[in-house]
Amino acid sequence: MQINNGLVYLIALPLAGAAILLLAGRRSDKWGHIFATLMSASSFAVGLLQLSQMLARPAEERAVEQKLFEWISVGSFQVDAGLLLDQLSICFVLLITGVGTLIHIYSVAYMSHDKDRRRFFAYLNLFIAAMLLLVLGNSFLNLYVGWEGVGLASYLLIGFWNQKPAYATASKKAFIMNRVGDMGLSFAIMIAFATLGTVSFAGIKEAAPEASTASLTAIGIMLLVAATGKSAQFPLQAWLGDAMAGPTPVSALIHAATMVTAGVYLITRSNFIFDAAPTAQLLVVIVGAITLLFGAIIGTAKDDIKKALAASTMSQIGYMILGAGLGPVGYAFAIMHLITHGFFKAGMFLGAGSVMHGMDDEVNMRKYGNLRKFMPITFVTFGLGYLAILGVPPFAGFYSKDMIIETAFNAGGIKGILLGSAALLGAGITAFYMTRVMILTFTGAPRWDEKALPHESPILMWLPMAILAIGSVTSGFLLSRGDALVHWLEPLFAEHGEHEELLKPIVVTSLALLMVAIGVAIAFLKYSRSEVSRTAPEDVSLLTKIVRRDLLQDDFNEAIFMRPGQALTSTLVKTDEMVIDGAVRGIGSAALSSAGALRTSQTGFVRSYAALILIGAVALIAAIWVVTQ
User: Is 601 a residue whose pLDDT tops 90?
Assistant: First the structure.
């Protein structure tokens, strides 16, 4: 593996941007946003340079490393702080810095009236740096540092407007639920070192063939727990909807294009573990299948445009996790969908922010209507993302999502039928709720307040949306042409072997498009042919009420974890007060009582003291006489 001493600049540039803006304080208010954007763009330029150098080398020599310093040296536990850039990590580097820079540009206008804009851009730079460390670390321990840094930056950005109690609560919820998942990564690292003697990717890959299936399964399950937390997958998905409390560019950067895809990166990076642990791999596809349906169903009942897109993100990452769990034939398709999703979902989140900008921060789609007339650029760019997520050819999602559906069916047997059917059903539900978003927002009669004056966003906002829309149209075709991405990633994954073809590609495509058409038709009939009320109807079925409550995910967590946790904590506190503190207080009380009793013997009369001395002397003489006899 070659050495490249320039990798550190990928991380150092945005990290320096964050440090300078935070240390400079108010002195950088006038130029902080420009400086942060330049740091992100410079990191993207370094990424492009690294890609060009990588393309100039043979496939087997494209991975490069850079050792930063000796980090831990304790007995047999030796860990260097080092970076690894290969065919997988370069995909993430370009996505993080490219989409991240567009979001920086968008934020210059979106946050222009916020007095703390400089701090916001410092946090954006911090997030970019942490995410880059996550995907460039050459070991699970180095990855873990970036993993936790991303969690911190997410907490700061979600709760950026923490003067609002609900926003502060949302950031704490995201932080805590991510910490639950992060325990899985901690345990995976511990198990790997205890059983394999190393935590580096290369070391574990080399040791995996000789390791026991039980050890690899335990590591794989713990990695999956980590992925469910960071990527908002079942059962740790409840935080994602609340995380929409942050500014909309945060939703686009963290909850569409980058942070929530970290779990997909973790699983694909650890492919050598999951390929050798079938049980852990089966759990991955189960989690993915459940989540893609879970998120899609929740999306059908959301009137908040950002929360509808958040549910969609949860569902689409479920597709990625499903693809990653299907083994060597699915890893590349999971990454392809991750990249295409980064374009169309980031574009739609920025489009949602554009709508909010033109509607005085209103998020309720029931109070929109006919905005295509007033916001034509937003309508077109959002619409292209809509067609991409539906998987309509030739848009990006058609190439990536259909390949995951096809691979799911080709898993074979009842497993393939169940997984493929779940993926198809998810495609139909996606078509329904995304069409609902389009209809409620951009078509029909206006339902906004009379004082509202919807208008198109400035160029600094719609230009990034337009660039992302181009990616929504072209990225799938470019990545799939000649199996370009599959061949690019082949050196990292097991051989992209042949698999049983249960359904021909044309059949899968036809079924997927049929499900999409059904979903679109149902949404059109329900929302285009009848008047939409400005408030959600209360007289609805029990099922609708359950879906509105996010399928009772918060209720479940409260009943199963929070309330028993409170009861356990209360019991422990009472035990501490009654037993431990009680024993301490009892000893103190006994000492005080004894002292009080002895104090009464102190009369202050000399004759009393003389009598006591006499009694003591007689007792001592008597004791000596008895002992010496």
Answer: no
